[in-house]
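hi! just following up on the protien thing from before. the input was this:
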Amino acid sequence: AALTIFLVLRINPAEIDYEEARGLDKTTHQTINIAQVFRDHPMLMVVGLTLLLFHLGNAAMLPLLGQRVATNELMNPAVYTAGTVVIAQATMIPMALLAAWYSHKNGYWLLFLVALLVLPVRGVLAGTVPGLWSVVPVQILDGVGAGLLGVATPGIVAQILRGTGRVNMGLGAVMTIQGVGAALSASFAGVVASWLSYEAAFLALAGVAGIAVVVWLLCFDRGVSSSPLKVSV
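and the predicted 3d structure came back as:
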């Protein structure tokens, strides 16, 4: 945290193009009304709904893995959980770099779709592969999804809202909506696990993630995000 503060203080405010940063149309220099943003850009809500479903299926998966291992006396749950985080982070970093390179040429739609697709696969693996063997592929897929979405989400919001001057507000709205899904995920998975089993809970999370894929394919206009985002420096 201290290093982060130091680096932020090293940023020269004079080198930031604030109009560019918030997606303002430099020909008019006018910010669009907030109500108009949501009325004229319905794809923003499609992104929000898709991410709500994604994180409803995603947020509880890692804690659930740890809880399942805690019932196994042959494995230290603390060591196991630490290992799952390391595997996911080690995968996420190169995936984010790959996503950044790809998006400059091809846009964000496919990145978003791939990130959505890996979550149902992850849930099915966690629910069907026995013992501790599922942790490596499950957490590699976690890193893939996190790395791709970490790049694609702000990029696709910026493309949807380019010229409105409301990119940051739009991204905040999307993050708030996805936060609702993440907040409900543990309760949803916990209820299924307590009534049925851990395996059933993983499959239920995978099912919700599958719905997110369907929403994305049916509702999002691919033309909005298929072209690369041009950034002026």
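Residues 77-106 form the longest helix (30 residues).
The chain has a mean pLDDT of 84.
cheers
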